[in-house]
């Protein structure tokens, strides 16, 4: 049994975005309970749920209301499922899959009425209210508190109020929202501002705080005449239509490299600071800290990697943009949660220069080389065997080892998203088959301590890695082999 469990990859399902309503009510508990029992029947290990800042702290600073979430968590517990909780410090609404509208707390948005530079801003001055700009992370703009302090207070309140679920191990993962859609990135491709696939997106660093920081950094480096890019195009441009991303464009010049290094480093520092607070808040809890990285697969085969770069992932031919993120997470004993695990290259239109399979290999390989755990999600709802088989390949890329643990294995996979369509007829049958394959065809394991190596009380972050080492560019390495194409398959 021990060898079999070593091949076991747990499966979770994301709950609907509005399972707790925008006015902080847990409605239709009987319907949710029915769906959860169907997940339990399929031997799913648990569920992932957004814990919305805009709901919990909506009435005012430090006026937290947890009752609806307590009721939800109790129902999940009663159904025998575990919980992955997301500290959702972003807005819901206006992007792919957003079925409800949950803005940031009104008292935070009111700060933006008089100081709109607290929001991410593109070159034309358009503000994005999905998430506070990382430029104000350490500015006491919210009633004398910095955003970092506000996030820390929220997480500490969660710990205090959800102690019953933390102490018994019901909550196994704490995923910390670090940007729009909960992902560590800039909001470079917002649908609510007109972006559509496969646009390259836009840099989001033109608020006064980030602009002043760049000018200061450039001046200290001996380049007082350098400013933020003015030739990077607009949301729906192609790389070759811009001066910045075209062949031999600005991104390859000394000035362009300096900007992109600064832009991506600011994102790393942002994530590092907030995860430090998460480690302090949940120190002593038997949970893993996690952070999500977006699977921006379009323009991956273009030399500029423009869509990744505008999101803050400085990932080009001679520079790995993801291993520095993995290195930063390693300091926090963190899990890197990556998306688009279900996608294949041949499913994407040729004109998008998209390569999701190569992107996933790069990110997973780099993360494993930094000795951190890797989890994953599908980016879009899929019910077909092709998508499930691709997720199986990525979750256990060297296949099943009947005599011991696989060489490579994901920490867990979270399926997007629980709905009636998933639980209906043929779709449900295929999904149950997928879960069995993720569990290496073994029996459901109710105790995660038997299949996870590091479910121990969370420690504080490791001693600080020198900033230079944390931020230094990493040259790409050959991805680790993904070679179980003929391994256990899900069939229709």
Could you characterize the architecture of this molecule?
This protein has 492 residues and is of the alpha/beta class. The chain has one domain (2-104, 134-188, 268-471): Glycosidases (TIM Barrel, Alpha-Beta Barrel), CATH 3.20.20. The protein is built from 15 helices and 10 strands. An 8-stranded parallel barrel has the order 1-2-3-6-7-8-9-10, surrounded by 4 helices. The protein has a two-stranded antiparallel ribbon with strand order 4-5. β1, α2 (29-41) and β2 (46-52) form a beta-alpha-beta unit. It is globular and about 65 Å long. The mean pLDDT is 93.
Please specify the SSE layout and strand pairing.
Layout: H1 2-6, E1 11-14, H2 29-41, E2 46-52, H3 53-56, H4 67-78, E3 82-88, H5 106-114, E4 119-121, E5 127-132, H6 147-161, H7 163-167, E6 171-176, H8 208-220, H9 254-281, E7 288-293, H10 306-310, H11 323-330, E8 335-338, H12 356-369, E9 373-377, H13 385-395, E10 412-415, H14 425-438, H15 467-471
Parallel strand pairs: 1-2, 1-10, 2-3, 3-6, 6-7, 7-8, 8-9, 9-10
Antiparallel strand pairs: 4-5
Helix pairs in contact: 6-9, 9-11, 11-12, 13-14
Q: Any idea what the CATH superfamily is called?
A: Glycosidases
Q: Strands of the largest sheet, in order across it?
A: 1-2-3-6-7-8-9-10
* Gap between N and C termini: 29 Å
* CATH top-level class: Alpha Beta
What level of helicity do the residues show? 25-40%
Identify the CATH architecture.
Answer: Alpha-Beta Barrel
How many H/I helical runs?
A: 15
Q: What is the gyration radius calculated from CA atoms?
A: 22 Å
Which fold name is given in CATH as the topology? TIM Barrel
* Residue-averaged pLDDT: 93
Strand content: 5-15%
């Amino acid at each position: 049994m021990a060898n079999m469990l070593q091949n076991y990859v747990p499966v979770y399902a994301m709950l609907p975005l509005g399972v707790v309503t925008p006015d902080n009510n847990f409605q239709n508990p009987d319907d949710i309970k029915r769906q959860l029992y169907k997940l339990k029947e399929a031997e799913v290990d648990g569920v992932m749920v957004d814990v919305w800042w805009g709901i919990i702290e909506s009435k005012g600073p430090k006026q937290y209301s947890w009752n609806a979430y307590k009721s939800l968590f109790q129902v999940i517990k009663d159904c025998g499922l575990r919980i992955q909780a997301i500290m959702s410090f972003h807005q819901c609404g206006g992007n792919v899959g957003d079925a409800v509208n949950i803005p940031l707390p009104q008292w935070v948005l009111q700060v933006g009425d008089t100081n709109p530079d607290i929001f991410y801003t593109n070159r034309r001055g358009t503000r994005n209210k999905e998430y506070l700009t990382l430029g104000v992370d350490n500015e006491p703009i919210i009633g004398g508190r910095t955003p970092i302090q506000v996030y820390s207070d929220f997480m500490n309140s969660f710990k205090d109020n959800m102690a019953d679920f933390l102490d018994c191990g019901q909550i196994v993962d704490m995923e910390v929202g670090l940007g729009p859609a909960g992902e560590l990135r800039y909001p470079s491709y917002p649908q609510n501002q007109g972006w559509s696939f496969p646009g390259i997106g836009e840099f989001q660093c033109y608020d006064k705080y980030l602009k002043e920081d760049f000018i200061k950094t450039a001046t200290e480096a001996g380049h007082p005449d350098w400013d933020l890019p003015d030739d990077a195009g607009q949301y729906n441009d192609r790389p070759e239509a811009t001066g910045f991303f075209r062949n031999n464009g600005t991104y390859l010049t000394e000035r362009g490299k300096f900007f992109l290094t600064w832009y991506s480093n600011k994102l790393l520092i942002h994530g590092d600071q907030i995860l430090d607070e998460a480690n302090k808040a949940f120190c002593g809890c038997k949970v893993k800290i996690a952070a999500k990285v977006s699977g921006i697969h379009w323009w991956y085969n273009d030399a500029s990697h423009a869509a990744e770069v505008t999101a803050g992932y400085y990932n080009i031919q001679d520079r790995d943009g993801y291993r520095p993120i993995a290195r930063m997470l390693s300091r926090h004993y963190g899990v890197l949660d990556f998306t688009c695990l279900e996608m294949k290259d041949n499913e994407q239109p040729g004109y998008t220069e998209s390569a999701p399979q190569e992107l996933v290999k790069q990110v997973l390989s780099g993360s494993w080389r930094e000795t951190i755990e890797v989890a994953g999600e599908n980016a879009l709802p899929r019910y077909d065997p092709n998508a499930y088989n691709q997720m199986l390949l990525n979750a256990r890329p060297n296949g099943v080892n009947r005599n011991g643990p696989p060489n490579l294995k994901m920490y867990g996979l979270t399926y997007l998203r629980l709905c009636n369509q998933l639980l209906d007829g043929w779709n449900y049958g295929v999904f149950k088959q997928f879960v069995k394959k993720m569990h290496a065809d073994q029996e459901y394991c109710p105790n995660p301590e038997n299949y996870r190596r590091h479910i121990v009380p969370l420690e504080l972050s490791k001693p600080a890695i020198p900033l230079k080492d944390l931020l230094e560019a990493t040259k790409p390495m050959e991805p680790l082999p993904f070679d179980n194409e003929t391994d256990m398959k899900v069939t229709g």
